[in-house]
Amino acid sequence: MSATAFYCCFSSCSSDHLSNNNNNNNLLSSKPKTLLHKHPLYQPTHKNISHQFKEKILSLEIMGVDSGRALSQNPSLHTAPLHSIHSIITFLQSKGIHQKDLGRIIGMCPNILTSDIKSHLIPVFTFLSSDLNVPDNDFRKVINKCPRLLISSVPDQLKPALFYLQRLGFRDLHSLAYQDPILLVSSVENTLIPKLNYLVSLGFSRTDAVGMVLRCPGLFTFSIDNNFKPKFHYFANEMEGKLEELKEFPQYFSFSLENRIKPRHMEAVRRGVHLPLPFLLKTSDEEFWELIKLQGDGRRRTR
To answer: I want to staple 222 with a disulfide (CB 3.0 to 4.6 A). Which of 44, 78, 90, 227 is the partner?
Structure first.
């Protein structure tokens, strides 16, 4: 559905029913006839809610957005005019965003609907095109991967993050755009630098820590308290692992401690088998048990 058809859909739907009766009280107490009339805000207890606000709620619901959550997260939506919302939808669709994408994108980032097209949204797409070499027909793919790009300031967030990442050694713009765009919306001062510093605090040299995040960019997305600390504690104290192992296999931090690391390590210990981290964690269940069996059999034959 095009943006124009979409706008006409919810506008005509509401106007057809709202203009038929000039008496608000009668309309609000009448039997629901449309999606708009069925909305809770049409109940008699909400007689003072404006017709335009109700149309706005219907527009969000049609897009598949939780209107209550969106209005709560972005209070500016209460006063945003319908034509402004329509303009933003039209603009996004002109950049290749499909109608079916809007529910998820706006649901995650409702501030998009009160963004300024000229000063905010256009610069984001210019950044994708000029700085990341994303062709116009791939805008949808990148935005769907990371909707937060649309609410990130180009001069204050996106460009500084790209500059910092490139200084670290991130040279593959394609990977940054298509696989790890979340790094571009991460704060350099509050997220990227502290996580790199934490790796250094574990005993890695800065060069080694940088090499780890280049090999596994997901390290920049993991929580220090909820991921790094408990997993490193288990690795150092229970597994008695060496830093060199993590340097070579930083993906260790991407596996679940309770569902993957602990069970497999404990089983290997129980069988008297030692497996390098990649074989311990990356293998499928079938491959893991086969390795356990083979090494176990090998140990018995050497006795």
So the answer is: 227
Q: Distance between CA atoms of 187 and 160, rounded to whole angstroms?
A: 9
58-83: pLDDT as tens digits: 888 888 888 888 888 999 888 888 88
Rounded distance between C-alpha atoms, residue 179 and residue 32, angstroms = 46
Alpha-carbon Rg for the chain, nearest whole angstrom, is: 27
pLDDT digits (tens, 9 = 90+) for 201-239: 999 999 999 999 999 999 999 999 999 999 999 999 999
How buried is residue 112: exposed, middle or buried, by Cβ count under 10 Å (0-12/13-18/19+)?
A: buried
Plot region of 2 (φ>0 → left; ψ -120 to 50 → alpha; else → beta): beta
Q: Are 102 and 60 in contact (CB under 8 A)?
A: no
Matching residue, tokens 């990442």: 165
Give residues with Cβ within 8 angstroms of 300, minimum separation 6: none
CB 173, CB 133: distance < 8 Å: yes
